[in-house]
Amino acid sequence: MSDVALSVLDLAPVVDGSTPGQALQNSVDLARLTESLGYTRVWFAEHHNMPGIASSAPPVLIAHIAAATERIRVGSGGVMLPNHASLVVAEQFGMLEALHPGRIDLGLGRAPGTDGPTAAALRRTSDPFGVEDDFPQQLEELRGFLRGKLPEGHRFRSIHAVPNVGHEPPIWLLGSSGFSAQLAGELGLPFSFAHHFSAKNTVPAVDLYRASFKPSEVLQAPYVMLGVAIVAAEDDERAQYLNGPSGLQFLRLRQGRPGLLPTPEEAAARQYSPAEEDFLESRKASQIVGGPDTVRAGIESLLARTNADELMITTMVHDHGDRRRSYEIVADLMDLAPREPGVGATAG
């Protein structure tokens, strides 16, 4: 397994009894730790109106994390492109790449990363989900701004994103279904699939991506990264206990009551209805939770089914020390070693 790259998806969890400021400080600490362990990249997800997630503005956090680290790649997992003007994203990530050459990734998604009313506030439209249909055109426009090569006759051809030319970060497409998988393949871009919340679609999406892939100036062969939820601890019982809060938090989100990440004590003491138990049980298909042997077996099984090139691990536990320890255990299982600057510069 040592030839499979490992990376980090950090949602900057805000835990019960703490603050968003502390969550962001923890993100700095985690980035420094995982850099020292040999993880390839750390990405931050764009979510809105969620009290338990502090990473609402990935470009701001990316700038801070990149300045606090030396080698690890830093990026978005992802920027939800329909929430933003393509020109603004080009300016932000062109500037990030100029500040931190060879270390910035631009992961892009279509979903709003929030609920309907908040999506409407972000997108300033009465049909906030309809704008996702324009994603391919908006992506083409963004790439044109970054390269300074909008087509002849394009209405924005005279506009220049500054800085842009010479400061184009690698673009990844993110997805949880087949749409982005096929688009990434047709454009010859690296693809990151959200296995951590859409496990049943993982293999079909990865197969579709590879079947659709056309070599490009970016990639000559498909490159697949999977987002996967892992909680590793000293033994299975401890890991399951630490994993309880993320299940309760996700349950509350689905019930329309988003909140902070609860304590494991609260999660363990809660009485769940049969329907809630079924919901939590269904989440296990997308998670790898346990002691070292269980986690190793889970990773080996996932890689055997998907032949992924890279795993991007997200770990949502209440105590930051336990989160650090989980990433250390996985690094040890995968025989990671510190990487030199620039390694993994594009798709790994």
UniProtKB/TrEMBL annotation:
<comment type="similarity">
    <text>To bacterial alkanal monooxygenase alpha and beta chains.</text>
</comment>
<dbReference type="GO" id="GO:0005829">
    <property type="term" value="C:cytosol"/>
</dbReference>
<dbReference type="InterPro" id="IPR036661">
    <property type="entry name" value="Luciferase-like_sf"/>
</dbReference>
<protein>
    <submittedName>
        <fullName>Luciferase-like monooxygenase</fullName>
        <ecNumber>1.14.14.3</ecNumber>
    </submittedName>
</protein>
<dbReference type="GO" id="GO:0047646">
    <property type="term" value="F:alkanal monooxygenase (FMN-linked) activity"/>
</dbReference>
<dbReference type="InterPro" id="IPR019949">
    <property type="entry name" value="CmoO-like"/>
</dbReference>
<keyword id="KW-0560">Oxidoreductase</keyword>
<dbReference type="Pfam" id="PF00296">
    <property type="entry name" value="Bac_luciferase"/>
</dbReference>
<feature type="domain" description="Luciferase-like">
    <location>
        <begin position="17"/>
        <end position="305"/>
    </location>
</feature>
<keyword id="KW-0503">Monooxygenase</keyword>
<dbReference type="InterPro" id="IPR050766">
    <property type="entry name" value="Bact_Lucif_Oxidored"/>
</dbReference>
<dbReference type="InterPro" id="IPR011251">
    <property type="entry name" value="Luciferase-like_dom"/>
</dbReference>
